[in-house]
Amino acid sequence: MSLASPLKAIKLAVFGQAKLMQIACYAALVFGAMGLSSTVNAADDALPKEYIPLVQGLIDAAKANDPEAIAKRVAYPLKREYPIPAIQNTQEMVARFNQVFDSQLLEQIANSKVDADWQIMGWRGIMLGSGEVWLDLDGKIIAINYQTPAEAKLKAELIAKQKTGLHPSASEFVSPELTWETAKFTIRVDNMGNSQYRYAAWAKGKSLSEKPDLVLNKGKLVFDGSGGNHSYQFRSGPYQYHCYVTVLGTSDSPPGELVVFKNDEEILKQAVIKAD
After folding, report:
1. What is the 3-class SS of 237-262, one letter each residue?
2. Which of 150, 141, 164 has the alpha carbon at shortest distance from 67?
3. How many CA atoms lie within 13 A of 96 on its CB side?
4. Residue 120's closest CA among 52, 31, 39?
């Protein structure tokens, strides 16, 4: 079994360039978009010879501006910055190709030099430049830390649509962080600006257009080590609500967990069964 094979079981989450910069400031993470940071400072080693043909194949596909060839070199699902939906397969990648790959990104890949612009980052994969593109050790694209104007427009449209569907008490925010379903709750965490976050929860089955059953403000983002896992943490009197986001996990890890504490004693834990 190749080293790359178990890596395919690792679950990765996309953050977007703004999120990646935030991650770098907190922990100098190597995971950002799809869990891989765009601000890694130095490579572990030069690119070994066995990976050169894999990288060169992507470069050649970019030079040819061949959507199908590039789509076949992607590890799916390819996550995009929330709330943009992940790309699930080759056919969808071809259909959304111009949304993800514009002329600037294609030129960067096409004009890159295997021996100068691509670096091996140990078990984390192969990185282009400052992390704009990441490949796994099978040569598959696992992260694109670049957002085209088309994706930026789509993100703005999706956020505006979310806001119109939410109860007025939860409809104002800077950017959405997550929407989760657990066995008993639907949960939203939103970035309110100034490094503060809001938690809103509805009983399972309620519409998000209804008033939330619980709203907590002034939450914080906390990173757990260098693997990309992080949590949004909120406090209400003796209660603490932690939304743990799984970036680095196993193939059967849930996307996250809601854990509630009272006076630092765990009183509730629910795995995420659906993450938008």
Report:
1. CCEEEEEEECCCCCCCCCCEEEEEEE
2. 141
3. 20
4. 52
Q: What is the pTM of this model?
A: 0.76
Stated as kind and residue range, the H or E segment containing 185 is strand 185-193
**Roughly what angle, to the nearest 10 degrees, separates helices 52-63 and 103-110?**
140
Q: How far apart are CA 124 and CA 188, in angstroms?
A: 30
Using one digit for the tens of pLDDT, what is the confidence trace for 189-200? 999 999 999 999
> How many beta carbons lie within 10 A of that of residue 31, not counting itself?
28
Give the three-state DSSP class for 275: strand
pLDDT tens column, 98-133: 999 999 999 999 999 999 999 999 888 999 999 999
- Residue 6: what residue type? P
Exposed (0-12), middle (13-18) or buried (19+): which is 253, by Cβ within 10 Å?
A: middle
Q: List the 256-262 sheet strands across, edge first.
A: 265-271, 256-262, 239-245, 230-236, 214-223, 196-203, 185-193, 175-181, 274-275
Convert 171-189 to b/e letters by CB count within 10 Å (16 or more is b): eebebbbbbbbbeebbbbb
Give CA separation, 103 vs 111, 134, 149, 234, in Å.
12, 18, 11, 42
Question: For the CA atoms of 21, 59, 124, 255, what is the dihedral angle to 10 degrees?
Answer: 70
With tokens 């806001």, the residue in question is: 163
Backbone angles phi, psi at 217, to 5 degrees: -110, 175
φ, ψ at 33 (rounded to 5°): -65, 125
> Contact at 8 Å (CB) between 30 and 124?
yes
Of 191, 133, 178, 200, the C-alpha closest to 272 is 178
